[in-house]
Design brief:
Structural class: alpha/beta
Strand order of the largest sheet: 1-3-2-4-6-5-10-11-9-7-8
Number of helices: 17
CATH class of one domain: Alpha Beta
Distance between the termini: 17 Å
Helix content: 40-55%
């Protein structure tokens, strides 16, 4: 049959269930493509082809292939601990570590019969917007190899957009699923905080981190979300509530009927009140997508959320503060890298040398920033004030959702930029998260769906909904996808051919 790597999850399900192909054949096709393309893209940090093919053969032998996600290859961002599989979080300080257990989401995917292709590259400890902060190598955008694939889940976005995996998991702390999805033409969803388990996710910022799917279609993302979501007693922040009906919502939205749905265009996120820093082409594609929503029957109005403009400084106090605490566990004593332990140094010297060599510049920058913000005499002025801003952002969301059902904005203010262009300008790098940060700080669900090209590069529309209303995100995103026709990544495949 045709190239198996060009098929999305739903198409692979059909091919597997009909007997047209096998999980082994699908897995081998993706491994072959990884071998051919990943030397350029740098999407993966670890691939074990033999283990993947063994797993695929087991699924085929069970007769389950094509049922749900059984037999479908997946890729995991290297921030999810995976039993016996090297897990580094993109950092030298964890080089060679093989965890003794698996993250809940990784285990749920395995229990569903998926085949793990490998672990994807990422900004070290998920700190970055370009995957240039990986301690191992940068990842490149399949649309233009001289441009970034977004971050911190850039390895996952490049793998799926480049057809090196049908679907992948990423994590989103301030936009790290949605922004890379936007700049590589994918669907990426950040679920409601607490609705997908964080157990086994190497923590960056515990009040913000959330796992979610990255896929070529809205329905593919929903199918994965349905498997990984739900309560987990091992995660103290896990919400004991049913998984929203995301698959049903995606299918309903694909019908294109949004009659009665109220859509709010956020004035402060690229609306009429805030356009500085936004690419004109991005704003044009987003406006066209909003017009498509209106054509599908939605009621569109502008909504003001004045505190959203404070999300960037608030986030870059809260997240580094939590990171400075979370990363204290990496001291070179219990696991991972250990430097200078030759018997001539005491424990404090070994820990200092290990952290000096094991952590990269961006991680050190954020640890220092967070430690300062939490220090005596500065806590109230910085961290305390940032938490107050977080409350104001929550209030803006609550007020907006009294008036509309969903909010929309660009996902990223710009298309993918050239590799190296922002490495020496942290503030410019951080600005890539302008649109995604409010939903992260409030813990509400948000999805990025492709809405066209600008300068030949993908643009994403962000859809935000109230907490636990993830199904609304999928419904609206599916309506945009249906109105635009074939998935945007199909154009990338055509161009490559």
């Amino acid at each position: 049959m045709s190239d198996l790597t060009a098929l999305n999850v739903v198409e692979l399900q059909q091919a597997l269930s009909s007997g047209e192909t096998t999980s082994v054949e699908v897995t081998r096709a993706h491994l072959d493509r990884i071998a051919a393309e990943d030397g350029t893209l740098g999407a993966y940090l670890h691939v074990d082809g033999e283990a993947a093919l063994r797993r695929a053969a087991e699924v085929d032998a069970s007769g389950a292939a094509g049922t749900g996600l059984a037999g479908i290859p997946v890729a995991l961002k290297d921030v999810f601990v995976t039993e016996g599989v090297p897990t580094t979080s993109g950092s030298r300080i964890l080089e060679g570590w093989r965890p003794p257990y698996s993250a809940t989401v990784a285990q749920r995917l395995a229990d569903a019969g998926t085949v793990l292709l490998g672990k994807t590259n990422m900004d070290e400890f998920a700190m970055g917007s370009s995957t240039e902060n990986s301690a191992y190598r940068p990842t490149r955008n399949p649309w233009d190899h001289d441009r970034i694939p977004g971050g911190s889940s850039g390895g996952s976005s490049a793998a799926v957009a480049g057809r090196l995996a049908p679907v992948a998991l990423g994590t989103d702390t301030g936009g790290s699923i949605r922004q890379p999805a936007a700049v590589t033409g994918l669907v990426g969803h950040k679920p409601t905080y607490g609705s997908v388990s964080r157990y086994g996710l190497i923590a960056f910022s515990s009040s913000l981190d959330q796992a979610g799917p990255m896929a070529r279609t809205v329905l593919d993302a929903a199918l994965v979300h349905e498997v990984i979501g739900g309560h987990d007693p091992r995660d103290s922040t896990s919400i004991d509530a049913p998984v929203p009906t995301v698959v049903e919502a995606a299918r309903r939205g694909a019908g294109g009927d949004l009659a009665g749905l109220r859509v709010g265009v956020v004035r402060e996120l690229g609306g009429d009140g805030a356009r500085e820093g936004y690419d004109a082409g991005v704003l044009e594609r987003v406006a066209e997508a909003v017009a498509l929503l209106e054509g599908a029957g939605a009621e569109v109005r502008e909504v003001s959320c004045p505190s959203f403009g404070l999300a960037l400084p608030a986030y870059y106090l809260i997240a580094p503060s939590e990171a400075s605490s979370n990363l204290a566990r990496f001291e070179g004593m219990r696991f991972g890298l250990r430097v200078g332990d030759d018997g001539s140094r005491d424990i404090d010297e070994v820990m200092a040398l290990t952290r000096e060599q094991g952590f990269g510049p961006e991680v050190k920058r954020r640890i220092i920033l967070g430690t300062y913000a939490l220090s005596a005499g500065y806590y109230d002025a910085y961290y305390g004030q940032a938490q107050k801003v977080r409350t104001l952002i929550n209030r803006d969301f609550l007020a907006a959702f009294d008036d509309v059902d969903v909010l929309v904005s660009p996902t990223s203010p710009t298309v993918a930029w050239p590799i190296g262009a922002r490495v020496d300008d942290p503030l410019a790098m951080y600005a890539a998260d302008l649109c995604t940060l409010p939903a992260s700080l409030a813990g509400v669900p948000a999805i990025s769906v492709p809405c066209g090209l600008s300068e030949g590069l993908p643009v994403g529309l962000q859809v935000m909904a109230p907490a636990l209303a993830d199904d609304r995100c999928y419904r609206v995103a599916a309506a945009v996808e249906a109105a635009l026709g074939a998935p945007l990544t199909d154009r990338l495949g055509e161009r490559a051919a």
